[in-house]
């Protein structure tokens, strides 16, 4: 974890040396921020359409499902607004910068991509705002983008070098062999990945993820997806546990990559992956109890944390709380029950919102329905703990709101978004 602590300091050092925006242009940026906030998603949707038309090769990097759902345009709009709003002192948003930088490094975003993004972003602003995007306004935003992109390029260059130089580290994509597939539930399957070259693999901190490159027959473009590592570090393999995303009613098709992994790939097949990344990780230096909350496949990073705490023999109480529809889709249930039985420091609680009759009689359900603040306050002896949670966005909003209402300090609330970033604090009263 020390490397990531050093990385935060490096962000601060980079921010000290970037050039400052001209005061006149700064005033223009400030005056146009409300317009950006109002039209941000429209601009970013148009930006992606424009960029993919001009540079179709970038379809090999960006998740097209997130384009269809609107998650990615919204995430970009929020990120651009936050960076521009804090351009005088971006140290205020270092956690957001770090999160984006980690994702960029994992996806192999390089310096040559930034001018392409800048050109098409400015073009989209001009085309959406029309007469409101005067030459003066566009010139100010061009300078602001140059400053913001310079921060990311400098920092990501350091991240690439550090990642490649670490023991077992590598740059770009490295071929891994699927050693075995294990069905964890009706919809979640684990993939054990070992390096094709047989050499050492990089360590990671529990909670981090890898990016896989899926080259699917019949598909024009490659598909990149990020999956949390679901087992402890220090082994000769990485494990990812993938939910099969079936077709949804709201015209969202079945997950092309998850379907490929579940139905097409078998033991012995090759998956290219990037080295572990991510800013969501277990703080191993805190003495406080650990509360791990997950919904659905969001348990993948929390399982890694649980396994790691017990393997490292950290003397910390662990409360493992998982929400699922029922036992049929509940992965790692028996594993967690076994760890709970074997380790007095672990207490586990399962919450099902649609349990079967067998689930009800099994006496392994702590609660039927959903996790609530009142229930958390009953089962947890204290709020003086480190809270980690991951799952569907609606689940995470409920958990985040509950912890804020319980007045848990923000620095002890940690969460991971699968896919595009979001703001869990939006609309909290």
Describe this protein's structure:
This protein has 13 helices and twelve strands. The protein is 44% helix and 17% strand. It starts with a helix and ends in a 13-residue tail after the last strand. It is an alpha/beta fold. Helix 11 links the parallel strand 9 and strand 10 (367-368). The model has no long low-confidence stretch (mean pLDDT 91). Helix 1 runs antiparallel to helix 7 (135-165). Strands 10-9-8-7-11-12 form a six-stranded parallel sheet, sandwiched between helices. The chain has a four-stranded antiparallel sheet with strand order 5-2-1-6. A two-stranded antiparallel sheet has the order 3-4.
Quick summary of this structure?
It contains 13 helices and twelve strands. Strands 10-9-8-7-11-12 form a six-stranded parallel beta sheet, sandwiched between helices.
Topology:
Blueprint: H1 2-17, H2 23-54, H3 64-69, H4 71-85, H5 94-107, H6 113-129, H7 135-165, E1 174-183, E2 188-195, E3 209-214, E4 223-228, E5 238-243, H8 256-263, E6 270-273, E7 290-295, H9 299-311, E8 318-324, H10 333-342, E9 346-352, H11 357-362, E10 367-368, H12 373-379, E11 386-390, H13 393-405, E12 413-416
Parallel strand pairs: 7-8, 7-11, 8-9, 9-10, 11-12
Antiparallel strand pairs: 1-2, 1-6, 2-5, 3-4
Helix pairs in contact: 1-5, 1-7, 2-4, 2-6, 2-7, 5-7, 6-7
């Amino acid at each position: 974890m020390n490397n990531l602590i050093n990385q935060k300091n490096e962000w601060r050092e980079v921010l000290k040396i970037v050039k400052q925006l001209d005061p006149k242009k700064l005033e223009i940026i400030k005056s146009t921020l409300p317009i950006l906030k109002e039209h941000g998603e429209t601009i970013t949707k148009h930006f992606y359409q424009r960029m993919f038309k001009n540079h179709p090769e970038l379809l090999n990097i960006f998740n097209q499902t997130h384009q269809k759902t609107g998650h990615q345009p919204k995430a970009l709009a929020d990120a651009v607004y936050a960076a521009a709003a804090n351009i005088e002192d971006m140290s205020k948003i270092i956690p957001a910068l770090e999160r984006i930088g980690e994702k960029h490094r994992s996806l192999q975003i390089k310096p040559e991509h930034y001018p392409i993004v800048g050109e098409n972003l400015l073009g989209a602003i001009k085309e959406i705002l029309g007469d409101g995007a005067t030459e003066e306004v566009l010139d100010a935003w061009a300078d602001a983008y140059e400053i913001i992109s310079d921060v990311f390029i400098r920092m990501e260059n350091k991240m690439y070098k550090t990642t490649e130089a670490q023991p077992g580290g590598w740059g770009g994509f490295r071929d891994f062999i699927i050693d075995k597939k294990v069905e964890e539930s009706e919809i979640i399957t684990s993939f054990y990945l070992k390096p094709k070259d047989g050499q050492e693999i990089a360590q990671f901190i529990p909670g981090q993820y890898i990016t896989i490159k899926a080259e699917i027959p019949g598909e024009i473009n490659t598909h990149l997806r990020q999956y949390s590592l679901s087992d402890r570090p220090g082994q000769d393999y990485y494990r990812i546990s993938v939910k099969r995303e079936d077709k949804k009613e709201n015209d969202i098709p079945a997950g092309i990559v998850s379907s490929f992994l579940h139905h097409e790939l078998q033991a012995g097949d090759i998956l290219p992956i990037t080295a572990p990344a991510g800013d969501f990780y277990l703080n191993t230096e805190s003495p406080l109890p650990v509360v791990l909350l997950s919904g659905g496949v969001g348990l993948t990073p929390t399982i890694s944390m649980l396994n790691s705490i017990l393997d490292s023999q950290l003397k910390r109480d662990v409360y493992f709380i998982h929400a699922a529809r029922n036992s049929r889709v509940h992965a790692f249930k028996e594993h967690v029950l076994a760890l709970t039985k074997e380790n007095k420091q672990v207490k586990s609680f399962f919450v099902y919102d649609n349990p079967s009759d067998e689930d009800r009689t099994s006496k392994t359900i702590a609660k039927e329905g959903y996790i609530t603040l009142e229930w958390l306050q009953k089962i947890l002896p204290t709020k003086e703990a480190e809270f980690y949670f991951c799952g569907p966005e609606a689940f995470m909003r409920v958990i985040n709101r509950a912890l804020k209402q319980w007045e848990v300090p923000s620095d002890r609330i940690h969460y991971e978004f699968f896919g595009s970033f979001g703001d869990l604090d939006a609309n909290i009263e």
